[in-house]
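Quick one: Cytochrome P450 from Sphingobium fontiphilum, structure tokens please.
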Amino acid sequence: MATQFVESVEGLEFSDFDPFSAEFRENPEKYHPLLLAQSPGFITMEGVPSAYIAGFAQCQAVLRNFKGFSSLKPKGLPGMERIDFFNGLPVMNYSDPPDHTRRRKVVNPAFTPKRTQMLNENAAIIIDSMIDKIMANGGGFEALGDFTKIVSIDTLLRHFMGIEDKDQPIFMNYVMTLPLLDKMRPGDPKPQAYLDAWAAGAAYCKEQQELARRGECRNLIGVIAEGAEGGAIDDDEMMAMMIVLLIGGVSTVAGAAAASLMNLARNPDVAERVRQDPSLAINVLEESMRLDPPVSLVMRFATDNIEVGGKVIPKGMPTYVMLGVACHDPSVYPDPYKFDIDRPNVKDHIAFGHGMHTCIGNAITRNVVPLLIQKVVGKMPNLRLADRPDALEWDTSTPRARHIGKLYLQA
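--- reply ---
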């Protein structure tokens, strides 16, 4: 056991649970009761003694305590290759104040009320267009490929981020290479396809930053660059920030919308209620996110010996905060696997994280997806799962989550 990263493991009992295992990703519900009962628990990941936190209140406490649980990844920690989506660059996700504060401040101008309103207007146009096209073709469609991904790319890449159609494949190709990282073992080089996709994205961002410095860039890079005058962020940070927005925006919106459609198709009574009261659309999104969070876990690193749930997490220990498990904690969500938009705490989940590291894409998702839900229940009153054995397929190819891979619906 590699204990050089951890102060002491004396007296700790370790289990063989692996949060990155295919078994857990494919059937997480099977593991929830034991993980909740044992939390905090101790495991060994790539030879490194580690902890996991699963209880809802425990996860909230750890995520709020940025001084006791740092987001900075220790250099040389085995296993980090699998979740290093940013090619080793500094990003908000893995930073603490004051660096996190500085980077978040630079990107805040991208989320002004004016830009959000413009986002909604553009989203409404593409959503209406896609629904009309689907209905004109008989009403059968695959939710992601035929609808939510297209809406997400058009709304986020084209209108919000301002990336022209010809340049959008640069970033989508990058996202397609991320599952390759899951196959990496400690010491493995990055897959060449990933490196090539990263290089293409970096070249694009560098070109746009040069245009922004001359006042010739009108997309999101230009907006961020204006907020970064005086060297607040460098070129590498800009590239990493664009990737954060891409993953936190495009992927989250598409997945959240698909999950919401799945739950509406399974619960026509809920769809009818939203049809009668469109304000309930946000509850559909929130409950869908709780049931299937966009990210199932995040990592923190204990800066001291810290007690959580009656157990001490040793200084230096990598700690996996199990968001997906916490969102099914029956002490907070009775009957946790039931889709229930009337929960009094329906909006209090931690599917988007918690504290200062709350997913930056949550504001976009909470604007676009309820709008999509409202339009779907209005224009697709008979939405249901398609009558085929593969109507729902899960994608477990990414290390930190289980997503809907295919969802065939009939309107």
